[in-house]
Amino acid sequence: MTFLEFLIEAKICTYALDGEGGEKIIEDGSKEFVFQKENYLYRDRYFNGSGKFAGEEIIFESGKPIWSMNYYGKTLTDTLTTKEIYLFLKKAMQLVSEKRPFRGPDSFIEGKYKYMDKSVGDISYFQGIEEIFYDDVKIYELKYHGGIL
Question: Which of 9, 59, 86, 120 has a CA between 20 and 30 Å from the CA of residue 33?
């Protein structure tokens, strides 16, 4: 299994599958997903409150940290619940690809929801912004950056 194959599988099998309820709660109040396969270990730990959140994904190979991504996001509406927004977000995140293995696809539309993700760089050094629109009104935004350690 390559690092990139592991990263994609880890992202699909953690938040995109079990987010908003499947996380482990840590003593410091953060929430965490852990995924392990072969000699790789993935951790996604984040803090949240009132529709705002910040976190870090990190991958270890044989116990050594080799890749990381930091992120900060928030919901921008009082009309829709965070639960509704995050249900759609998880669908988009299940479409992560080797071409852009950071969040979801370039775009994804379902009903009145539209997901957009723009990034620059590659897996070794990157940054991007993820947005969700409802009826063409932006209701969610997340900024991220990271790379090989």
Answer: 120
pTM given for the model: 0.93
CA 61 vs CA 36, 64, 66, 111: distances in Å: 10, 5, 6, 40
Rounded Cα distance between 26 and 48, Å, is 12
Q: Domain extents for the chain?
A: 3-148
Strand runs labelled E in the chain: 24-25, 31-37, 40-49, 52-61, 64-75, 107-110, 113-122, 125-134, 137-148
High-pLDDT (> 90) share of the chain, %: 85
* Other beta carbons less than 10 A from residue 147's beta carbon: 14
